[in-house]
Amino acid sequence: MSSTKFFGNIAVSEHKGIGIAYTFKNTSGSSLEAPTTLNIQVKDKKGRIASWGPNNDYPQKILKAIKSSGSGSSALRFLRKAHYGSGIILVNNTPDENGKKAPKLVDILKYPEINTFFKTSQVPRFFKEIIADMEWFSIGFPEYILSNNFKTINRVKRHQAAWCRFEIMNEENGLVENVYISEKFGKESVSEDSPFVSKVPLIDSYWSPEEVRAYCQANKIYKFIRPVFYPLIDEAYYPQAEWHSVVNNGWLDVANSIPEYKKAMFENQAAIKYMVEVDERYFEQIYGNSWKDYTVEERQKIRQDLIDGINEGLVTTKNAGKSIQSMMFADEKGVQTSALKISSPDDKLKDGVYLPEAEAANSEILFAMGVDPSLIGAGIPGGKLGAGSGSDKNAAFNILQALKKTDRETVLEIYDFVAGYNQWDETISANFENTVLTTLDKNPTGTQNATI
């Protein structure tokens, strides 16, 4: 006896009261566009994976592009730190006598089972890693490892999102059943007999702990991946972070190309301070008929001696303010022209060429990432984008912390699932502690911690 339940575009198939799914059926009845697929071999079973990008290298392209962008890298680092706040804490959410919220910090040492799990899984480090994946790619791949009797989750660990690929949906049951993991994905072709690929069963994120336990016990699954991700909009297998728009529309390329262009200008442009032009008639007037009798080498030496003398009069500080004498000639129209002209060529570097474009590109990157420029001291030499005042930073930081609530709820689904599976105290929940910036007149340290 089987049935299918739909959650938006997610179809969960159940068989004899047990179900598993991470599927992407269109509930309107029309099929989604088939993704590019790659064949992969793991041990004795050959499968197909959904390519992440046309060449299965989308995460690697994002990483390469951002690592060349100062503003992008800085903004992502800031988002990760703001997301994590002052760290993960346990809170007792029992309301006070008036029925109002009164969260209180919990001493984890009073709960040996939770404390052991935190130590075994290195929970603070684990969440920092998952948060990094969420900020970069809007998806995380935590792996849960069960006890031999399936009663508890003993450990949770993170797989790097850039190394993970979903198996193509099984057309027979409409399920995505496995995740393939390899550091080679996106960097080189993975042969069908590659030892660098592993496979882990996939379980749907909508399943309750009880359903997961029953399924794992029935199918002898001792470890599985249960993804966490920000809401899918129109994607099939892999979400696309909203800030990736600056990669798709070219602003990130603009920001990255300007430093390369400026560097090339510095390396290849000759540093010419003065342009000296000498009329040939100058030598004829100075040396008279003898000029025609000089050899080519003698004329060249005379010209060089003149230039050396002019350089000596122009470039040394002791000659600052001195004047240079030059004769005038009348051309065939009687117009007086100088025999010696000294000018300064146009220096593109001193004019800050392309800095306005760099400012615009960096602004677009920060806007897409939702980071107020004042938070990272955004601004460029010669640009108009300032670093912001202290009050601007304070307000922007506190607003960003408040907006991180939904992102943190998504990440904390991992703790909630483990707590439900292991049947920990339901009055205790995990939270991230905020750092709230204050003024020194209110707090000598300038900061205070606040429980979310």
Into which percent range does the helicity of residues fall? 25-40%
Strand content: 15-25%
Class derived from helix and strand content: alpha+beta
Low-confidence blocks of residues: 1-34, 379-383
Mean pLDDT: 79
What is the overall silhouette? elongated
Counting DSSP E segments of at least 2 residues, the number of strands comes to 20
Protein name: Phage portal protein
How would you characterize the overall build of this protein?
The chain has 452 residues and is an alpha+beta fold. Helix content is 36%, strand content 21%. Helix 2 packs across helix 4 (123-137), helix 2 packs parallel to helix 11 (355-369) and helix 7 packs antiparallel against helix 11 (355-369). Among the domains are: 1-57 and 147-236, no CATH class; 275-315 and 324-344, no CATH class. It contains 14 helices and 20 strands. It has helices spanning 58-67, 70-84, 112-121, 123-137, 209-219, 245-248, 251-268, 280-287, 290-293, 296-315, 355-369, 390-403, 405-411, 413-422; strands at 2-7, 10-15, 18-19, 37-42, 45-50, 88-92, 104-105, 139-146, 153-159, 164-166, 178-181, 198-201, 223-225, 228-229, 275-278, 328-330, 336-338, 340-343, 428-437, 447-451. The two termini are 45 Å apart. Strand 8 (139-146) and strand 9 (153-159) form a beta hairpin. This is Phage portal protein. It comes from Flavobacterium erciyesense.
Notable traits:
elongated, 4-stranded antiparallel sheet, disordered N terminus, Phage portal protein, 452 residues, 36% helix, alpha+beta
